Amino acid sequence: MKIETTMRALTDPTRLRIMRLLSAMELAVGELAQVLGQSQPRVSRHVAILCDAGLAERHREGSWVFLRAAIGNERGDPVGEAVARLLATAEREDTAFAAMCADDRRQLNNIRSAREENAASYFAQHADEWDELRQLHSPDQLVEERLLTALGGEPLGQLLDIGTGSGRMAELFAPGTANGADHVIALDKSLDMLRVARAKLQNLPSGGIELVQGDFLALPFKAHRFDTVLLHQVLHFAQDPAAALAEAARVTRPAGRIAIVDFAAHNREELRDRHAHARLGFTDKAIRDLLHEAGYEPARPIAMDEGELTVKIWLGTRLGTPASTDARKAAR
User: Fold this and answer.
1) Where in the sequence is the signal peptide annotated (predicted)?
2) Among 177, 178, 186, which Cα is nearest to 159's?
C-alpha cells in the first residue's frame, strides 16, 4: 500500500463514510448508494478510487458486486492497520464526522431489514422441504455439539466452510465465539443461499467472515491456504465425491484438518428427487478410502443415530501433498 495513494483516496468525505460503513459490514454498491443517498454511478467512482488504493476490494456474486474493507488487524499490513485505527479514532473524536457516521449506520438498519425479509421469504418457500428432511435425522443442536467437541481440541485457524448454505456453520465457528476460528470463509455456489447467509451473518463483526461464491469442484483459493475445511451436509450433493475431496485437500495445509458431516448410507431413494441428493449417504469404508485418496489420515468416525437417518462426523488430518495413485496402492 503506497502512502501517497492512500492519503489521496481519503481526502473525500464520501470515501471516508464508505470506509466506515465497510468497517461495519460488507455491502453491495447499490446498498452503499442507498445509504449515502447518492447515485450508483457516483458511488462506483468513489469505490474505484478506494479499491485502486488498496483500501477496499470488490467481489462479484452473480450480477451483484459486493465491497469489503481491505484494511484491519487481520490483514497483516501495518499501513492498513494504522489507517483503520485512524478512521476509528476520527469517528470517536471528530464530532461532525461522528454524527455523519452515526446517521449512516442508522441507514444500515434498512439494509439489514431488507436482507432479513428476503431471507425469510426464501425460507418460507422451502420450509416444508427442510422440515421434512430435518425430522429424519438427529437434532441439529446435537450434531453441532458433537462437531464442536470433535474439533475443539486444536485451534481452527483459517477455516473454509464449503457449501455454507444458511451460514449456520460459519456463525457457529465465527471469530470471537468460544470455539471460533481466526477467520472464516463461507463458500456456496447458490446466490440465493449466499443472500440467506449474508442476512444471518450481517450482525457479526466485520472482517471475521467472508462470503464467497464458488464451486466445491473448483475452489477459488490458492493451495494450502486453510487450517480447517468443513463440509457440512454437502458431500451427498456431489456427483464425484473424490473430486470434491481432492479439491478440499488442495487448499488444506499440511497437518490441517477436514470435517465431513453427512448421512451414513441409507436407502431413502426419494431424497434423490425431492432434495437433489446425488448420493444416499456414505459407508465408513467409502469415506475412509476417499480421505486416503485425497491425502488425509482418517480418524474414528462419530455417529448420531437418534433419527431414522444416521448422521456421522468423519475427520481427517492432511498428510501433505498426496502421493501418486500408484505409490498409494503400493503402500497398501
Assistant:
1) none
2) 186
**Chain segment 197-240, per-residue pLDDT in tens:** 998 898 888 789 999 999 999 999 999 999 999 999 999 988 88
Burial class (CB within 10 angstroms; exposed 0-12, middle 13-18, buried 19+) of 66? buried
* Domain spanning 136-331, CATH class: alpha beta
CA distance 227 to 224: 8
Domain with CATH 1.10.10.10 in the chain: 3-110
CB atoms within 10 A of CB 129: 11
Give the 3-state secondary structure of residue 34: helix
CATH 3.40.50.150 intervals, the chain: 136-331
Residues of the chain where predicted confidence (pLDDT) is lower than 50: 322-332
Fold of 3-110: Arc Repressor Mutant, subunit A (1.10.10)
pLDDT digits (tens, 9 = 90+) for 262-284: 999 998 888 887 777 888 899 99
pLDDT for res 192: 84
